[in-house]
Amino acid sequence: MNETQKFINDNKDRFLNELFELLRIPSVSADPAFNQDVLNTADKVAEFLKEAGADNVEVCETSGYPVVYGEKIIDPSKPTILVYGHYDVQPADPIELWESAPFEPIVKKTEIHPEGAIFARGSADDKGQFFMQVKAFEAMNKTGELPCNIKFMIEGEEEVGSSSLSEFVPANKEKLKNDIIVISDTEIISKDQPSISVGLRGLSYVEVEVHGANMDMHSGVYGGAVPNPLNVLSAMIAKLHDEDGRITIPGFYDDVLELSAEERAEMAKIPFDLEEYKKSVGIADIQGEKGYTTIERTSIRPTLDVNGMWGGYIGAGAKTVIAASAFAKISMRLVPNQDPDKITKLFTDYFPTLAPSSVRVVVKPHHGGHSYLLPTDDKGYLAAKKAMTQTFGKEALPTRSGGSIPIVALFEKELGSKSVLMGFGLNSDVIHSPNENYGLFNFYKGIETIPYFFKYYTEG
Amino acid sequence: MNETQKFINDNKDRFLNELFELLRIPSVSADPAFNQDVLNTADKVAEFLKEAGADNVEVCETSGYPVVYGEKIIDPSKPTILVYGHYDVQPADPIELWESAPFEPIVKKTEIHPEGAIFARGSADDKGQFFMQVKAFEAMNKTGELPCNIKFMIEGEEEVGSSSLSEFVPANKEKLKNDIIVISDTEIISKDQPSISVGLRGLSYVEVEVHGANMDMHSGVYGGAVPNPLNVLSAMIAKLHDEDGRITIPGFYDDVLELSAEERAEMAKIPFDLEEYKKSVGIADIQGEKGYTTIERTSIRPTLDVNGMWGGYIGAGAKTVIAASAFAKISMRLVPNQDPDKITKLFTDYFPTLAPSSVRVVVKPHHGGHSYLLPTDDKGYLAAKKAMTQTFGKEALPTRSGGSIPIVALFEKELGSKSVLMGFGLNSDVIHSPNENYGLFNFYKGIETIPYFFKYYTEG
C-alpha cells in the first residue's frame, strides 16, 4: 500500500478543503427548516464519490432523505466491503455556546490537539469520519491498490433514527450485498490507545405530554386547586428512577444480558481516570446506577434520560401562570438483548400510571434502535485490529460504545453481515454538543489506516 | 346621583371606545421589548385623567415604570378616597391560543355574556377595571355630584411585583394621604351574586437553576454516568409536595393562620358547583391539599406552583442530548401572617438540599408580596357592600381572592389606610390566559356602582 500512502500524503490539504465544503452545508435532519441543505449535502456526497472513482453513483430516493450509493467492483471473486456513513448532523443549538460558527469550519489548536482540530458541527459525527473512507478509497483506487470490491451507502437520517432505511435496505438487498460492513462513526480510547467498538447500545426515544386545564391559568385564582402539569410531569419523571439510580419501569431489565465477572474484569482494564473524567465535563461528582463503574454505566447498562423538557412561561421576568400542558423528550439507551419496541411499549404502558386522575397523559414514540455486539474472533474485527495496531504502533483494544447506530442491527437482520465499527473519534470531540471538533491527527490517521483494513480483510 | 347615572348612560359608547384605545397599547411590563409601549400607556392614562377633570395630573418617575397621579380636592374637610389601579398587563403568550389579536380589542357574545364581552389582554386585568373608576369619577365630576375628594394612583409594574412602589409610596406619603383606598382588580362570584374580596394571598416568586456538566452532552456517550439536570430538577420539584399535597419546605406552614370551624362554615356558604368548576377549566379532576375544599385551597391555603420550566432540546424531532442546565420559575401563594421574605428564605435554604452532590443549584428571588385581610365591619367594606347590594339587587358577600396585590399591604404599612377590593370581574375572564375578556355587563355595572360607593362612604 505504499503508493496509496504516498497519494494520501500528497493530497492532505485537498482532502481537508473538500471536507470543509461538506461541513459548510447545515444538513440538520431533525429540523425541517434545513430540508434543502440536507438534500444539497446528498448531491455533494455523490459528487465526491464520482471524483474518487466510484461507479454507478446514485442519489437514491427514500420516503425520507436520500441514500447516496456508489461502488467499485474490481473482481466479483474478491470480497466486497460496504462502507456505511451518514451525511446528516445534529442541530447546532445551543448556538450561543459555540466559540465559532458551527457551519463555518476552522482549524484551531487545543490541549488535546496541539497540531490542530477541525471545529464544526459534523466534523466528527459523521462527515469527517465517513469522508476518511471516501478519501482512503480514492487513494487505493487511483493508485491501483484497491484490493477488493467496495460499495458506499451514505444516508441522511441517522440523527433522527434512520427510519427510511427499514424500507430501503430490504428493498435493495442485492445492491447492498457484501461480506462485511465498515463504519467510521465511533471513538477510540485516546490518540495513543487505539480501540474498536464491539458493542453499541440500542435506543428507545419517546415524547410525553401532560395536559391539565384547557388553557394556561392564573396561579393565584387556580393555584392549589387544579393540577399543574409541570409539577405533575416532574413527579412522574422523578418516579422513573429509584434511590439506587435503577429504572423503575416494570420488566425494563428482564432481557438485559449481565456480564460475567471475567468480562467485567476484562472491561476494568480499559484505562480510565475518574478525576480526569469529572474534570473533562466539569461535574462535581458522577451519578448513576448503584454497583457499576462509570465505563459500565455508559456501555453495558441501559439508561433513561430526559433530553428536553418545557412548559409554562419561559420568557423574561415572572409570570404567575399555571400551564395547560407540559412536555418532555425522554430517551432510553438499551443494551444487548433488550428489544427497543418492547421497551417503548413497557414505557408507554407504565408512564401514564404515574399520573394522578386530574391530568391526561400522551406518549408518542419517536424512534428506536437495537443494540449490537461483534465477536472479537470475527474476521472483520481481526483485520481492523491488525490495521490499527500497525498504524498506531500499539495494540488496539475492544470497547463498548454508549451510543447507538440503529442501522447496524438492521444490516445484520436484512443483509446477514456484521459491521466493524472502526471509528477514529475521541470523547473530547463533544459530538452533539457546541464546539464539536475532530482532530487533524484522527482525520489523517483514519485515512492512513483504512487501506490496511481493506488489505488485511482481503488477505485474511 | 341621578345626574351621574344619566351621564353614564348617555356616554356608554364613548367610554367603551376610550377603553379600546388603552387596550390597543401592549403595555407588557415583564418583557423589556414592550418598554416604549408601557411608557406610552402611562401618558395615555394621564390624558384620560385630565379629560375626566382631574387636577395636578402627573406622570411620576420611579426607578421602574412611572406612576400616573391625578386628584380632585373639592373640600379638605371631606374624606379622601384614593383609587389605585395598574395600566401594565401580563404577557400575551401563548399567542397562538388567542382567537383574536390580544391587543386589538373586539366585543364578542359568549355563553356567560350574551350581551357581549371585550376580548383583549388587560380588558379585565386591570385596564378595564381601573378605567371604570376613571369614568365614574368623570360622571360624578361633570355632573357636580362628586361627594368627596378623590386621588388616582395608577401604576405600571403590578404584573412584575410593583417593586418601584416600595420607594415611591414612602416618598410620597403626603401626596397619597387618604381615608380609604378603593381598588377594582378582583372578581365577583357571578353576574347575579356580587361579592367583595376581604382577603388576598401573598406571593413569593423564585427562579431556580440546576447545573450539571459544563456543556450539553451526547446521551449515549455520557448517559447513565453524569447528572442529568432535567431529571435532577424534576426530582427536586417532586419533593416540594408530599403525598397529601402539602408543601414540604420546613417551617412553611408555621405562620399560617388557621380559620375557625365557624369561619370555614361561613366560607362553605359561598355558592360553588364542583362539576361546573371542572367543566369551566376542562379538567378531569381537581387536585390539591388534602382536607380542604377547592374554595379553601384557592383562598385560605398557601400553594406552590411551577410557572415555567425548560432545558435541553425542545425543538422539532429528537435530539439525544443531556442538557448542561435546567431551569424553572416557581411561585408560592401565601396567606395572612406568612411573610414573603421569610418564605423566600426558607425556600432558598431548603431547595438546594434536595439536590445530589453532582449538580450545582442556584435560587434567584424574583419578587414577593404580603397577604391582606379587610375586617367586614370596616367602614369602606360596608359602603362597598351597600353600593353593590343596591345596583345588583342582591346582598354582596365577603370572599377571599387567591391572587395577590402586593401593593395593598404596602399601603397599609406606609399610609395606614385600608383598601376596599371592589372588583367586578369574573373567574371566566381568564386573566393571565389567552382570550382574556371582560363582560360589558361588568364594565357598565362597575361604572354604575362606584358612585354609590363614594356616596355611602362619604355619608357613612
Q: What features would you describe in this structure?
A:
2 copies of one chain form a homodimer. In chain A, 32% of the residues lie in helices and 21% in strands. The first copy, chain A, has 460 residues and is of the alpha+beta class. Chain A folds into 2 domains: 2-200 and 371-459, Zn peptidases (Aminopeptidase, 3-Layer(aba) Sandwich); 202-265 and 298-369, Alpha-Beta Plaits. In chain A, the strands form 5 sheets. Chain A has a 6-stranded mixed sheet with strand order 1-2-6-3-7-17, with helices on both faces. Chain A has a 4-stranded antiparallel sheet with strand order 11-13-9-14. A 3-stranded antiparallel sheet of chain A has the order 4-5-18. In chain A, helix 2 (12-23) runs antiparallel to helix 4 (127-142). The longest helix of chain A is centred in the last third of the chain and has 20 residues, at 440-459. At the A-B interface, strand 9, strand 10, helix 7, strand 11 and strand 12 of A face strand 9, strand 10, helix 7, strand 11 and strand 12 of B. Strand 11 (303-312) of chain A pairs antiparallel with strand 11 of chain B.
Short summary of the structure?
The structure is a homodimer of 460-residue chains. Helix content of chain A is 32%, strand content 21%. The relative contact order of chain A is 0.19.
Radius of gyration of chain A from the CA trace? Answer: 23 Å
| Side-by-side strand order of the widest sheet of chain A | 1-2-6-3-7-17
The CATH homologous superfamily of the largest domain in chain A is called Zn peptidases
Shape of chain A: globular
- Main sheet overview of chain A: 6 strands, mixed
Multimerization status: homodimer
The portion of residues assigned to helices of chain A is 25-40%
Distance between the termini of chain A: 16 Å
> What's the overall average pLDDT of chain A, rounded?
95
The CATH topology label of the largest domain in chain A is Aminopeptidase
Number of helix segments of chain A?
14
- Indicate how many domains the architecture of chain A comprises: 2
Going by CATH, the architecture of the largest domain in chain A would be 3-Layer(aba) Sandwich
Low-confidence stretches of chain A: none
CATH class of the largest domain in chain A: Alpha Beta
The structure class of chain A reads alpha+beta
Largest interface (CB < 8 Å): A-B, 102 and 102 residues
- Report the count of strand segments of chain A: 18
